[in-house]
Each structure stands twice: as structure tokens, then as C-alpha cells.
Design goal:
mainly alpha, 22 helices
Amino acid sequence: MSSKSAAATENLLDELQAALAHGTVARRVETLQRVTDLFIDGDVDFSDQQVALFDDVFECLIEHIEMSAKSLLANRLAASKTAPPRTLRRLADDDAIEVAGPVLSKSERLDDETLIQTARTKSQAHLLAISIRRVLSRAVTDVLLLRGNDEVVRSTVQNAGADLSSRSYTKLVDRAAQDEHLAAFLAIRPNLPRHLYLKLLAKASAAVRARLEAAHPKRSQEISSAVRTVTRLARSTPVALTEQTEIAHALVRSLHAHGRLDEPLLEQFAEQKKFDEANAALAAMANVPVAVAEAMMVESRAEGVMILAKVAGLSWPTVKLIIDMRDELAGGAPTDLRSCKATYERLRPSTAQQVLRFHRMQESTPPATAPVA
């Protein structure tokens, strides 16, 4: 710090003591503004020790000023990369969102511990302010999604800088079944796991169908057909394929082309809960497009998996692993494996081939063109 800045700080400290001891509220606010100007507009880089001194000064002042002055201080310090940390935490912990909001939403000096504590204890307005930060760690987003109301959850999911855990994604897909706005935000996240995207699609389309059929009961069959067509087309759109999914599909294509794709490798994919790899491997071994296998894999019942597996000539232990993987990733009720095993053992390869041909025809049939009125 220059001698001039040091002298200015000394003078302000003297003024601070006088203001706190005998000054009016107006004088304290004026002193706060001058201290803030010195810190924000200073022509030097303050050392840690000097920042700590400002921390002491700010803490003394904000004890004795009204909310509007604290709000102004929060707005000015929020963008500072060297703002005093104790002061920031004090402002972030304020019950008034006018004070806490600017710091919670903008300050990159706040650590995760402070953000998590605030998200666990403060109002929904505080959570909403946190949700729009430039970057959000998984630890913070987990708390926001657990405690947040619909607005907070949507804001967090819509934030491209928010890192969401697999567990959070699974819960969000279930929640999105009743929230079409949340479903839309989830669907465009670039790192949404493929199996959850397909589950989201199935849940959302079911909700859309129910609403449409309730409004137009005489056209329920037509609506169901239209929704199925839209769902089928959406599965094959490039936006639905994440980079991770494309890499997995390319790996399986390479293994298949070089004769290295076999049942033990498929078992390994299923055991490791690698949906993209397992689905692509099953598709290759059953000689069907990946989109067809996906459509059958995400059906509510396990028959689609068994049809593919029978055509691929897989043993029951492998089929069981695939069903277990699907159940765990879907987060739903476990499949009745005893009944499935009996069905699989009775299923004839020729019957499975016929059903699979039907699925392939459904997937490749273009949507009917509506007649012109």
C-alpha cells in the first residue's frame, strides 16, 4: 500500500472510531461509503493483512447501519475478486434478500461451505439467488434441488454452470413428469445421461397424452398414435445424443466390426451399469438399429429386453443382468425376475424374430400425413 493510501486508511480508522462512538447513522453511512471507495477504487493490490483490516472495519460498520446501506455495500463488494471474506459471509447470511442476494448470486469469493449452509437454512429467495451463480458444484446443487421449490429447481437445472449428480438427475426426471417446464430444461442439458433422457421422454409424453386425451376424449386413439410418432422421432434426433453416448456407440461398433463383441463383454457392460454400451451391444448382437433397441429397452415391462436377448441368443444370467441394470438406472420397482425367467425360457427364437420385425417396421414407418381440410 502506498504511503498516501496508508495515511488515508489511518484517517478513516480514526473517523470510524469517532463515528461509532458519537456519530449519527448518516455519519456512519458516510464513513462506510468512504471505506468502500478506498477499497474498491484503490490503486493498489491489498495484501491479505490489509484485506483483513478492511474486514474488521466493514464488520464494525455494518453492525450499525440500516438495510439500504448494507444492500449498497453488498452490491459493490459482490463483483470484487478480493472482497473481505468475513464481510461477504456476514452479508450472505443476512435474512434480507436485498442484502444477501447480490453476494449469493455474484461473489466468487464465497466458498461452498457458506453456500451450502445458506441453502440449508435460509429462504427460498436465498436459494434462488444461489441458483443463478456462474458456477455451482454438485455439493451445492444437491442441497438446492433437495430444499428448493419449483422455481429454484427449474432455475438450477436451467443454469448451464450447475454440475448435477447422477442421483439428482434420476430424481429430477421423476419430478419432471408433473412439470413440463422442468422437463424442457432437463431435455436440453448436454450431459443428461442417455437412459434418463429416454425415461424423461417416456414420462413426459405420457403426461402430454393424458392432458390431450382429457381435453379431446373422442380423439384419444388419434392422439395416442401422434404422441408415439413424436416420441419415436425425438429418440432419433441428434440433439438427444450426448457426446458420451456417441463415444459409447462408436466403441461398440468398432468392437463388433473386429469380432470382439460377445456375451461376456455385454455382461460386463450391464454389471457396470453402462447403459449406452450395453444397449448398443445388444442392438448389434440382435442385428437391429440402436434406436430400435433403445425403444424396447425403456418400455415399462421387460418383454422388450427379452425379445432382443432371445434373438441375440443370450443366456438367462446375462438377460437378468441387463434387466437389473435397467431397473437400477430407472429407479422404479424391481422386475419380477422369476416370472421373466419362465417367460424367457418359453419364448421361441422364431416368435422373438417376428416381434422384432414388427418393432423395426414401427420404427421405420414415416408418420402419416394429415389430410388437407
